[in-house]
Amino acid sequence: MIIRHISRQNSILNKFIAEIRDKNIQKDRLRFRTNIKRIGQIISYELSKTLNYQTRDIITPLGTKPTNLINDTIVVASILRAALPLHTGILQFFDDADNAFISAYRKHTNDTGKFTIQVDYVASPSIKDKVLILADPMLATGKSLVAVYNKLTENETPKQLHIVSLIGAQQGIDYISENLPENAYLWIADIDQKLNDKDYIIPGLGDAGDLAFGNKI
Questions:
Q1: Is 61 among the domain residues?
Q2: pTM (2 decimals)?
Q3: In CATH, what number is assigned to the domain containing residue 25?
Q4: What is the pLDDT of residues 128-160, one digit of tens each?
């Protein structure tokens, strides 16, 4: 897997990452969602540099200008519900992309803390020979991403896979590196080094879905 750790190079991205982590700023849900959208836009810009382009003639009122434009068909797929703000940020750059939405969650089987990933709902166009951008804000164990990718590719295979995340743990990155295509890209804003005993990223930022949309029952 090709890993792009975006915050290794200092930029305005650092401010947005700091604010989604800050427990006081997190109380403003609108700001939290907006910062996630901004991070999605920054990552989308970097990701766009790896796509295929074709020169096209653009007709202006005064002449013609050859311009290199993206020549890939893109599908943006997001894991509900936490990825919705990230999906919106990505879509603001790839505004003509097709869209897919998948419901996946941790299904705890007993009191030991162990869980499986339950994929209940998939709404997706064809991904055959397309560029698949799979968005999941928190890359903890990596099991959700692998389960969702396996579900999406039961009958079709994309031309290229790009994973977009806000924050990931090294353990989860190692897991998806072993279980997703070797030529896939991971675009991640920042990387933390460990998970706690409940498999949450430390220091992370908490539950991205709850922070963006409110607590669930």
A1: no
A2: 0.93
A3: 3.40.50.2020
A4: 999 999 999 999 999 999 999 999 999 999 999
